[in-house]
Write a structure and sequence with these properties.
The complex is a heterodimer of chains A (114) and B (112).
Chain A lengths: L4 E3 L2 E4 L5 E6 L6 E7 L6 E7 L2 E5 L6 E5 L5 E5 L8 E8 L9 E2 L3 E5 L1
Parallel strand pairs in A: 2-11
Antiparallel strand pairs in A: 1-3, 3-8, 4-5, 4-9, 5-6, 7-8, 9-10, 9-11
Chain B lengths: L8 E5 L4 E6 L7 E8 L6 E6 L4 E2 L4 E4 L5 E6 L8 E9 L13 E6 L1
Parallel strand pairs in B: 1-9
Antiparallel strand pairs in B: 2-7, 3-4, 3-8, 5-6, 6-7, 8-9
Classes of the chains: A mainly beta (114), B mainly beta (112).
């Protein structure tokens, strides 16, 4: 079992550009959440996808959008990048059928906006 | 805002038990205490969770006070690989797969 995988590992973009990050959940998991972690801070919840729909959303602007595919993988899209979007973006997966839904995190994508 | 309070940093000698405290005085009856840790530049890793009874697994032990307002994560024999930021989180368990609200955590340093 490969666990949660994310791609790419690192990414450098310039202000105003758009970026797409990808996540494959752990085998057997159907729910994917995305988090943003700025340097020196704890991760902050962006949104969660289940059954290809956004189920919960944190306090992030509409520039942040996502998608979940039938195979449960997910994408995070960020438009009109700002310098403040530079962060580690984490994907976490869990299963709706699990009693305690401990979430399994991927290694993250490090995004740098110049 | 996070519903827990943790010391920003702690250190522990290698081979000794590391005891990480957490206050969650506003915890609700249906909320569990979860612990995650994050080793530098990696994603957070689930450690353990509990409701009101003490819990133990292969990684750690969790001691929850009787009034559930605080807890302690115990790493029985700390090694250098346990150096990480440890997050104490309270959240509802169950099939709703609720989001995790992280605080600032405790940065644990293990000294040789």
């Amino acid at each position: 079992d490969a666990g949660v995988t994310q791609s790419p590992t690192h990414l450098i973009k310039t202000r105003g550009q758009q970026v797409t990050l990808r996540c494959s959940p752990k085998s057997g998991h159907d729910t994917v959440s995305w988090y943003q972690q700025a340097l020196g801070q704890g991760p902050q919840f962006i949104f969660q996808y289940y059954e290809e729909e956004e189920r919960q959303r944190g306090n992030f602007p509409d520039r942040f959008s996502g998608h979940q595919f039938p195979n449960y993988s997910s994408e995070l899209n960020v438009n009109a990048l700002l310098l403040g979007d530079s962060a580690l973006y984490l994907c976490a997966s869990t299963g709706q059928a699990f009693s305690y839904n401990e979430q399994f995190f991927g290694p993250g994508t490090r995004l740098t906006v110049l | 805002d996070a519903k827990t309070t943790q010391p920003p940093s702690m250190d522990c000698a290698e081979g000794r038990a590391a005891n990480l405290p957490c206050n969650h005085s506003t915890i609700s009856g249906n909320e569990y205490v979860y612990w995650y840790r994050q080793i530098h530049s990696q994603g957070p890793q689930y450690i353990i969770h509990g409701l009101k009874n003490n819990e133990t697994n292969e990684m750690a032990s969790l001691i929850i006070t009787e009034d559930r307002k605080s807890s302690t994560l115990i790493l029985p024999h700390a090694t250098l690989r346990d150096t990480a930021v440890y997050y104490c989180i309270v959240r509802v368990a169950g099939s709703s797969a609720s989001k995790i609200i992280f605080g600032s955590g405790t940065r644990l340093s293990i000294r040789p």
